[in-house]
Design a protein that fits this description.
The chain is of the alpha/beta class. The chain folds into two domains: 182 residues, 3-Layer(aba) Sandwich (Rossmann fold), CATH 3.40.50.150; 60 residues, no CATH class. Helix content is 37%, strand content 18%. It contains eleven helices and ten strands. It has a six-stranded mixed sheet, sandwiched between helices. The protein has a four-stranded antiparallel sheet with strand order 1-2-3-8, with no helix packed on it. Strand 2 and strand 3 form a beta hairpin. It is globular. Bound molecules: zinc ion. Zinc ion binds next to loops.
């Protein structure tokens, strides 16, 4: 029997439907009794209740944003910079010139590439620490939220990007409405986010890396998100299912967990936060086993994750959409 929750507590944050139900297998899965609900219309899943800002702030600490100049260890940091370059190159291919807004710009790495290629850029970053770094990287002001109407003019951007930021927003539907007002007719909208209905998400269940509660407040069925935007006048240019940056690591976490390692074991290693604890021979042996498995499991994860992407079920996907031209002028 489907339990339909009562309005207004469980209203869908994307389409505002009141037809929602608790998502089975995701009830009370975090301290604080958070559960996931799912919209029965657009299949968007969302955390309920929304944690207050004080609690959320605890989850956006230095472990999340990194220490010092870089977020990760040296070699990994260079790989991250390369992926940001690829993002910038993709935007350049689809938007040859103009003004670009990056919502959730982090340290401004993608915008720095675009700015060096002659684009005018703006970044929005909620986190103070990341915004300071973005300001240094771009040598310009960074905005705090999308909801600053005095600062943002209508239809001034040729591209608006949400690279893994929309799932952090409590009201993604409203954020997309604002983005639509800021985007020029014919402009490019980019949304990259975890795909809640992906094969890896279903295999991992509540352990899925990209679930990332409570930082990820909303989880999309990316196919349905594309349909939602197409129904609002956008043309889907491309649905990218491959992501070597995001879609291998969660499969790797899953394989480790299947073999009896703690949740997110390899992720800890990559972020440089894995600390060798003097926990006795048993712990040392497990660490050696974990490290020796890294190479073969990474290879296996690469193949498995890309096979899922080939099946159009990447664990994170990216939508590239074109706003309709204004034919009234
Ligand atoms: Zn909905």
């Amino acid at each position: 029997m489907t339990i339909v929750a009562q309005a207004p507590n469980h209203t869908c944050p994307l389409c505002e439907s009141n037809s929602t139900s608790p998502r089975q297998g995701y009830q009370h899965i975090m301290p604080g009794e958070w559960s996931l609900y799912q919209c029965l219309d657009c299949r968007t899943s969302f955390i309920d209740p929304i944690p207050d800002s004080e609690i959320l702030a605890k989850y956006y600490d230095e472990n999340y944003y990194g220490h010092g100049e870089g977020k990760f260890l040296g070699p990994v940091e260079r790989i991250v910079q390369f992926f940001r370059y690829l993002r910038a190159r993709t935007v350049r291919r689809l938007t040859p010139a103009g003004r670009v807004l990056d919502v959730g710009c982090g340290r401004g790495l993608m915008l720095r590439f675009l700015k060096s290629w002659g684009y005018e850029v703006d970044g929005i970053e909620l986190d103070t620490m990341a915004a300071v770094r973005a300001r240094q990287n771009l040598n310009q002001e960074i905005f705090h939220t999308l909801e600053e109407p005095d600062r943002f003019l209508r239809q001034q951007y040729q591209a608006v990007c949400f690279w893994h930021s929309l799932e952090h927003m409590p009201q993604p539907g409203k954020a997309l409405e604002i983005a639509d007002r800021l985007l020029s007719p014919g402009g490019l909208l980019v949304i990259a986010a975890p795909h809640m209905e992906s094969i890896q998400s279903r295999l991992s269940g509540a352990s899925w890396l990209h679930l990332d509660l409570p930082r990820h407040l909303v989880h999309f069925d990316m196919e349905r998100l594309a349909e939602f935007l197409q129904s609002r006048g956008y043309q889907l240019i491309k649905h990218q299912h491959f992501s070597q940056e995001y879609n291998v690591i969660d499969t790797l976490c899953y394989l480790y967990e299947v073999l009896g390692f703690k949740r997110l074991y390899p992720f800890s290693l990559i972020q440089g936060m894995h600390r060798h604890r003097t926990g006795g021979d048993c712990h040392t042996l497990k660490t050696i086993a974990g490290l020796s498995l890294m190479l073969p499991l990474t290879g296996a994860s690469f193949l498995i994750a890309n096979y899922f992407s080939l099946l159009r079920s990447g664990s994170t996907t990216t939508l590239f959409l074109r706003k309709a031209l204004d034919l009234s002028n």
